[in-house]
Amino acid sequence: MSIEKTDVLIVGGGLMGAASAFFLRQRGKSVILLERDQIGQYASGVNFGNVRRQGRFLGQLELANRSFALWKRLPELIDDDLEFIPSGHMRVCYREDEIAELEAYAAAPEARELDLRIFSGRELHERFPFFGPEVKGGSYAPHDGHANPRLAAPAFARAARRAGATIEERCEVTSVQKVGGQFRVTTSDGREYRAEQLLITAGAWGEKLSAQFGEPVPLIAKGPQMSVTEPVPYVLKTVIGVYTKIPEEVLYFRQIPRGNIIIGGCNHSKPDMLNRRAHFEPQSLLKQLQQMHRLAPHMANLNIIRTWSGIESYLPDSLPVMGPSGTVDGLYYAFGFSGHGFQLGPGVGDVMAELISTGSTSTAIEPFHIRRFATSSMQRSKAS
Amino acid sequence: MATARLKNLQKDALRVVIVGAGPAGTRCAETLVAAGIRPILLDENRRDGGQIYRRQPEGFTRDYATLYGSEAEKARALHQSFDRLRERIDYRPDTLVWSLTPGQLCCVSQGKHTTVDYDALILCTGATDRLMPIEGWQLAGTYSLGGAQIALKAQAVSIGRRVVFLGSGPLLYLVASQYLKAGATVAAVLDTSPLRKRIAALPKLLARPGLLFTGMKLLAQLYLARIPVHLGVEPQQVLGDAASGVSAVRVRTSHGDNLQFDCDALALGYHLRPETQLADLAGCRMRFQEVSQQWVLDTDGEGRTSVRGVYAAGDGARIRGADAAEHAGRLVALALLQDLQQPVHGEALALQRRVLAVMDEFSHGLCQAFPWPAAQAKALADEAIVCRCEMITAGELRSVVREKGACEVNRAKAFSRVGMGRCQGRYCSQAGAEVIAAAAGVAVERVGRQRGQAPVKPLSMLTEELKQAEEVAP
Ligand SMILES: Cc1cc2nc3c(=O)[nH]c(=O)nc-3n(C[C@H](O)[C@H](O)[C@H](O)COP(=O)(O)OP(=O)(O)OC[C@H]3O[C@@H](n4cnc5c(N)ncnc54)[C@H](O)[C@@H]3O)c2cc1C
Ligand SMILES: Cc1cc2nc3c(=O)[nH]c(=O)nc-3n(C[C@H](O)[C@H](O)[C@H](O)COP(=O)(O)OP(=O)(O)OC[C@H]3O[C@@H](n4cnc5c(N)ncnc54)[C@H](O)[C@@H]3O)c2cc1C
Fold first, then answer.
1. What's the predicted TM-score (pTM) here?
2. Superfamily classification of domain A3-48+150-217+317-383
3. Closest Cα in chain B to A299
């Protein structure tokens, strides 16, 4: 049996794993990344593509800002274009009292870099004439934007590979353990890998591996629902999202320069974890169309040409598991990104590389530590 | 799921849904009605008849001979059967099935969304044109053979004043001769299959001598009318410009000469591909059919798919033509009756199977005589568009294979957008798979097939409920 050795072994080749591999190589670590299927095939490759900071848990904005700085350095950073457009992001509400909540968020010191601006009343409808009359206010983030998720993780993986990382696809990790100061990882096809440090970036399957180290977390998988229209003239440069506490009202859309409008929200499906597919539920489309009609009535007369979903991992407080293990030295986690990991991807890779190679990070990630599930059951929902 | 329920249900409480009112769907419904079942029959068309026996819109009064030529009698028989059934089935025309979940179909009818529950589902969804790109085919005036025929049959209009027919397969000659008869100028009939393939296929084609004879007669008509007919051509390019569309078609003959035919329209096609999206969404297994070099539904000899309670018949399962569709429709109904433990005549079953075996043989002969021109994909110029909806070139597709390692169809789609457009891959995904396979240096069945995604056809966002809401709104 062959045994391969490396400084850092990464399990899971979504955006988190691929970006981590890239930044670890930048810091001179030898890296092997093992991906069960194909790089970026799951959540990272099929998500909505929002590169949005506003609306996140305030304690996550520092990480989101670090990621944003990296998004802005694309494509030079990885020599590949992820079609990132800092188009602006508008977060709107249907109720007057929610405007105050948007204002409070915009006024928070953590949100300073976002340069948020609140619109309401006539000014709102003049600036965004396509909104329906029910839209009462909105928070405009001029620097946020969107990118093409299908390209992101594979591009980071290629850049990592060019920088010397080993990337193995179709290589499923079945067991992880630490024996005598070294991690031993075995795969379903009988290969064994050994490493000084181990990073678990296995998305919705992260818990299966953390549990092998005695750190289970209450992770559940859900499938956000996506649909896309045929191309129409490119006029909606801003990404739009609804701020609400009613799940069915959550709708977001963006238009790409090619003309298609991508729509998401309103519903989640329960993924088929056996066949590793999340289905789009036909009912979701009806809900989306209804909400679309409410949000932007004149845009509702379009043809939907495709629908899809993807498997994303959620934790009860909607925050990820990110940081060192609570029990095992040299073990690190970055999974469970709860529906908003795409924007964070480059930043997570950068931070994990810093943490793994220096032992600490300059960005606050304490709220995401896995130990929060070991101690307490009082979780509050912190993010929206 | 549907299965467990099947056996315990009373015949009259059983919800049997057929999708498609073509020859397969009609004969299936007829057989079920005879056994005392009242199926629901859904079809997105306004009228029954399916593709080949498509009925003209109400108000049009062309006679059967004009509309269906040599197939007039079969068309009349099918329509009459349907009219007799009309009161004994729950027929819902103008109803597109756009998605499904186990036990339920999602439909849209005149902009209104409905669901239809089923215990047993029989998919008789037919086929669409199978296309191979040619450089310049994005120019206005390029139609599929089927599209050209529909224009003639449904609207009584020609796609151009001077039409070139290019491709391979029986439809090439059929549609060309229909255009000739309708008074259009047929500039040329250009077949990529060489004569020797046809000769080699003769033993199989002789399984149905009548049909073979009909085919020869068509060819004779074209020769008699002095239409240039060339066999074994290599398509080179469609010429023209964005403003005025197609102006000529260039091919290389089997002797190596370059020929150019002036025209203002091109009808293009290489036989047919099955419409398997609904079956795919239902989770039915597919298999790669060697002889036709394409993915077809994996059904047993009687039309059961790999998913219990889901059946398929006609060209939507695999391409065997209209006559076979009628027989397969009957046979699949008998299979369902058997599964319901209804009495079924062993003889009736055996008869259908025997007839279908002959038709199988013939359809294999057709595949051999008019092979899918896989090599063209390999030879396609880098500048040629593969995906017309998204305007992606062969060169762009090849680059995601070579530079980004996308050697699988869905992966290459994700990276390049080939197959992501309005046609949802109907017209480009097979050719795209050939381009990918050639660039990756593997056999085409190894690069997979494009996964079906709902909606099966582009779906208008303005459902009836929303329209009403709009009218009420200030
Ligand atoms: C439909 C949808 C829409 C979304 N929209 C947005 C959005 O607009 N903006 C945003 O910021 N975020 C969005 N998200 C969330 C975002 O996509 C995810 O948070 C992010 O991609 C997570 O990346 P990941 O690398 O952790 O997970 P994944 O991409 O799931 O990658 C994990 C990888 O680990 C591999 N793996 C698992 N177990 C093993 C094993 N045992 N051995 C080897 N490999 C293994 C898997 O095969 C997988 O490739 C959305 C998610 C979905 C599904
Ligand atoms: C464009 C074209 C032209 C052809 N011309 C000829 C010809 O001239 N001569 C010849 O011998 N053969 C011809 N064929 C082949 C011939 O049409 C078929 O062999 C025959 O029609 C097969 O019968 P069927 O019942 O399997 O399918 P079809 O006759 O195609 O019937 C399928 C029916 O299903 C319906 N349907 C499909 N999907 C859905 C959905 N999602 N929701 C609701 N309804 C749906 C369609 O509207 C259609 O009415 C042609 C095929 C095509 C595609």
1. 0.94
2. FAD/NAD(P)-binding domain (3.50.50.60)
3. B461
